[in-house]
């Protein structure tokens, strides 16, 4: 009787149950590594990034990982049976639950993983994070976004800072700036940074955010466990995962610099892009940079391109912003084919992006549409008929056009003619498709103002053009104060650029309204 009771207590001992589950997980990973398929890809002699003992490179021409063998799939199924038994004996254990969800995802049993996360008996924040991970892996990005937002709301502030810790994805001055922020400030900065990394305004949900938070969930799941590399997660591997993601498969590879023959090769998500800015302010960045600090895949996309020469302008409208885009795809652009469509989209500070207008032919033209609210970002996005290839031009605006009070629009370049148009509808057909102009020619410049204070008696206008890298104005024009000045109106002018040499320039319009100045700038290139 005593022996039976002792045996029963041993079976119910939480530490013993957990130790047994951990042993089963390690046993599976050893089996996986033993049965990994052989990769016949050539050895890599250069690392794009060396993180500890891990070598990372991004090779668009590399073959996908070889399929895993039946022995690995069978061993994983057996592990899941053992984990389910451990979960019955130790319900609500976060480690066991995380392993169950993770290996169900690996086995492509996503419905079971989603159901398990939905019945989760662990802490609610962890349960929501696991649900977000499953939904992200299933491609349900908007739902994953919402699940991760719930998770962040449910955890303590210190834990929230940990989940949104982006310091390993920053470098240089941005990393130093990050360390100077308080916990609350880091949360705000990280959310803004991830939002600026949103791949496309036209797609619901932010897959960069859900991918990053999925990576955070993964490093918490695999913490302390044996990995396919035959080692336990260390600081270098954690950084690798947060910057480049968890591998989609593994193989026994040939030697790479610093490695040995037969070392495990992880096959990372492909294609993937440098979608996040290198700093915290969201300055312009190259999504196709050869060696970005971090890479992110976008579900369903085979290619994501940058539209290099687009003229994008904003004009104030009641309750919103009129977006105007003028562009022309060059003949060599892979999107310059029949069936390419597009959208004009914008985003306010606190609302989800809005598709303001549809473009039936994305190969070139002039498009306009009204978006709601004061936009902090917006742009033109084009896509092929199958939706697999996109191209984007996006601009960030630190000072959105206000929806109340005096405002000056962006500047719109148009083809000069015998007369200067007075209305935007007259300008649009003549809008220059891009921001490049020919040397020795003339251009037109159009702008609008709105909501000047009642009783405004004198408003002066000044236009100046200076080199793009700073310096004194090369050309300048000004008008004496206009009295009276209509509260809303437009201005246009033809500019002779015949004396300008080739290079980058900044055009600026300044309206002086009493003691206040309203300014608007337009970059242009003289070829």
Largest sheet: 5 strands, mixed
Anisotropy-based shape? elongated
Rg is: 28 Å
The N- to C-terminal Cα distance equals: 95 Å
Q: What structural class do you assign from the helix and strand content? A: alpha+beta
Number of domains: 3
Please indicate the percent range of residues in DSSP E strands (runs of 2 or more): 25-35%
Low-confidence parts: 5-10, 255-261
Q: Helical percent range?
A: 25-40%
Number of strands: 21
How much is the average pLDDT?
89
Total helical segments: 13
The main sheet orders its strands as 5-12-11-8-9
Descriptive report:
By secondary structure, this protein is α+β, with helices and mostly antiparallel strands. The chain has 13 helices and 21 strands. It has helices at 2-12, 14-34, 70-89, 94-106, 110-118, 124-137, 141-154, 157-163, 172-179, 183-196, 207-222, 235-244, 424-427, and strands spanning 49-51, 54-56, 249-252, 264-267, 303-306, 310-317, 320-328, 341-348, 354-359, 364-372, 375-383, 389-396, 407-408, 412-415, 436-437, 442-450, 459-467, 475-482, 489-496, 503-513, 516-526. Strands 5-12-11-8-9 form a 5-stranded mixed β-sheet, with no helix packed on it. The longest helix has 21 residues, at 14-34. Residues 5-10 and 255-261 have low confidence and may be disordered.
